[in-house]
Design a protein that fits this description.
Layout lengths: L4 H24 L6 E6 L5 E6 L2 H27 L11 H6 L2 H37 L9 H25 L3
Antiparallel strand pairs: 1-2
């Protein structure tokens, strides 16, 4: 199967989002006040502030970069495995009897949604990173609802992926 164009587009966009989530705090650090928001409630309003620290600003994006690189490697491996049954988690006997076509469909779906989840996570981290700087600088008062919408999409995608995977693995025939 290999990684397709849409997979590479998601990877590139996620990397762009992560570069921005590191670059924006880095270039604005010297202009920040001594206290910066470090935690936000569900409405996106800051509910905890800490002394200005580059570590506070970059720890989330840096951890996410490492996680995303691991996810890209996993997706690349899943896409490149010769027998798609090797990437399916389920009862071994059922998977062994599964048609190549169904196994390929599951693999294709798993690769796509792994990368989609990676993309959405990187978008949330970028929004938080940029929002944190803008709130600290007084450009806006809260994060808004954008992150909650993205998190809802993440949850919906995870549920969809799970439901489709189970449906395809346990489908008779």
């Amino acid at each position: 199967m290999g990684l397709q164009k849409e997979h590479w587009m998601m990877i590139i966009l996620a990397l762009v989002f992560m570069v921005l989530s590191i670059y924006y705090p880095w270039v604005n650090y010297d202009r920040l006040p001594e206290m910066i928001p470090t935690h936000f409630d569900l409405a996106g309003k800051p509910d905890a502030w800490s002394e200005k620290s580059l570590g506070h600003l970059l720890v989330g994006p840096l951890i996410t970069v490492i996680t995303l690189l691991i996810m890209v490697v996993i997706a690349w491996w899943m896409a490149g495995v010769e027998d798609p049954r090797r990437v399916i988690n389920g009862p071994k006997e059922r998977i062994k009897k599964m048609s190549q076509e169904r196994a390929e469909k599951i693999r294709s779906m798993a690769v796509f949604h792994t990368l989609l989840i990676m993309l959405l996570v990187s978008l949330v981290i970028m929004n938080v990173s940029i929002g944190q700087i803008q709130i600290a600088s007084g450009y806006r008062e809260n994060m808004g609802w954008g992150n909650m919408v993205i998190v809802a999409l993440l949850i919906a995608d995870a549920i969809y992926l799970t439901w489709q995977s189970v449906r395809l693995i346990y489908k008779s025939g």
